[in-house]
Amino acid sequence: MKRTFIAVTMLWLCASVVAAPPDGKALYRENCASCHGQNGKGDTGPKLVGDASEWKTKLFERAVLNGIDDQGKPLKSPMPHWSRASFKSDNGVAPSKAEVDAIQQYLHTLK
Ligand code: HEC
């Protein structure tokens, strides 16, 4: 009985540490929308919805983190190279792939 209780408690603890996935919508709005538009349709930056949003995850991550597009070409300024920067909510820590993936997933929901 006691063992079961401990096992269940441990599982619950693990589940709460793994916790919620990053909020792609909030991350996008805070860090990307100013250039790519509230709805990802582009502004000073190119549209992402229906374009880069459809790239393979690895290519999208590479573009956002390292500033290299799907053709292997460097992305020009002012597109930030996010591996050398930080999302507003991350207080100086470079973005994780999970955060970038969450942004791409959010872009998928936009039409
Ligand atoms: C300060 C403006 C600015 C911000 C902020 C910005 N971008 Fe960009 N982004 C650009 C510009 C300009 C380009 C085009 C660069 C080029 O063509 O060389 C670009 C290009 C891209 C591309 C490649 C698109 C393509 O079709 O080639 C992706 C993907 C991208 N941005 C994602 C993001 C994401 C995700 C964020 C937020 C985490 C973000 N950008 C924030 C300006 C910005």
The CATH architecture name reads Orthogonal Bundle
- Biggest beta sheet attributes: none
What quaternary form is this? single chain
The CATH superfamily is known as Cytochrome c-like domain
Radius of gyration: 17 Å
Q: Report the CATH C-level class.
A: Mainly Alpha
Structure, described:
Residues 19-111 form the Cytochrome c domain. InterPro entries: Cyt_c-like_dom, Cyt_c-like_dom_sf. Keywords: Heme, Iron, Metal-binding, Signal. With 111 residues, the chain is mainly alpha-helical. It contains 5 helices and no strands. It has helices at 2-18, 24-31, 33-36, 57-66, 97-109. The longest helix is centred in the first third of the chain and has 17 residues, at 2-18. The model has no long low-confidence stretch (mean pLDDT 91). The chain binds heme C (HEC).
Short description:
The protein has 111 residues and is mainly α. The protein has helices at 2-18, 24-31, 33-36, 57-66, 97-109.
What attributes does this structure have?
single chain, 111 residues, mainly alpha, Cytochrome Bc1 Complex, Chain D, domain 2, 5 helices, binds heme C, metal ion binding, iron, heme binding, Cyt_c-like_dom_sf, electron transfer activity
Task: Note the topology.
Elements: H1 2-18, H2 24-31, H3 33-36, H4 57-66, H5 97-109
